[in-house]
Specification:
alpha/beta, four-stranded mixed β-sheet, about 50% helix
């Protein structure tokens, strides 16, 4: 009997941590092992100064078919299996027992480095919820998106409604969640769900080019921008101005900014 391959593979290239979902025979359904390995990769990315960008991708016919409900995880979605008997217990079960999904998605959203996700094929359920926590989402022409939870009469259980609404607005959240309708790649771009759609033939190269572009950006600026953008999404215009000023009060003391601006001004003035 051959040993099963790891459910997540990682490699490093040019300051990029590449994490590849690796259960193609199971449509990259998210298992406990995959969550453990992804958590380990995310924390390594967070703590390693030499890693500037994280890229999440996958192999096979699906980017991800969502949580693997047939691999001993039924208790997180079925009261009859988990034994819970109250609405409060179900809410706590969702918060604590979804293989750590809510906690990991939150951590990905809070890390002050860019995380990119590349959808080469269909992305649904928990795979889509994970992707909503990334900073940049790219789709190949053959990609598509859906929340199948509606087929069972429930909502996406791990921040799917909240983050989707924040990113795409209630108009499109109704389409994916309430109407339980899928969205092909071009429609997902219109919705604001993905930043760009690339041809299948050049998809991998386009995504890597973008990741390499991010590695050349100022890390302090990107970290501050990530925090500022999240804050400004929840604040009014006036409070948002305060966030901008607070951010720049630290960034403009950065020696790299001071040196770069001095060199730029010398060049503009024609001085040697």
């Amino acid at each position: 009997m051959t040993e099963e391959a790891p459910h997540l593979l990682t490699e490093e290239a040019d300051g990029i941590l590449i994490a590849t979902l690796n259960r193609p025979d199971k449509l990259n359904a998210i298992s406990r092992q995959m969550m453990d390995l992804l958590t380990e990769a995310v924390l390594r990315f967070r703590d390693a100064d030499e890693l500037k960008v994280m890229l999440i991708r996958s192999t096979g016919r699906y980017f991800s078919a969502g949580a693997d409900l047939k691999a001993g995880n039924q208790k997180v979605v079925s009261p009859s299996v988990s034994g819970v008997s109250s609405a409060r217990a179900i809410r706590e079960n969702h918060r604590l027992n979804l293989n750590g999904m809510q906690q990991l998605w939150d951590e990905m959203e809070h890390i002050e480095k860019p995380i990119v996700v590349a959808h080469h094929a269909m992305c649904v359920g928990g795979g889509l919820e994970m992707s909503l926590s990334c900073d940049f989402r790219f789709a190949a022409k053959s990609a598509g998106y859906a929340f199948p939870e509606g087929l069972f009469g429930v909502l996406p259980a791990s921040n799917g409604v909240s983050r989707l609404t924040r990113i795409c607005g209630p108009h499109w959240a109704r389409w994916l969640v309430m109407a339980n309708k899928p969205a092909p790649a071009d429609m997902a771009f219109t919705m604001g769900l993905v930043h760009q759609v690339f041809p299948d033939e050049t998809f991998e190269q386009e995504v890597m080019d973008f990741c390499r572009h991010l590695t050349k950006q100022n890390g302090e600026q990107m970290g501050a921008a990530k925090v500022a953008i999240e804050l400004c999404a929840d604040l009014g215009r006036e409070a948002g101005r305060h966030v901008e000023r607070m951010g720049n009060s630290g960034l403009m003391l950065n020696p790299s900014y001071i040196k770069g601006m001095e060199e730029y001004l010398k060049g503009v003035g024609g001085k040697k």
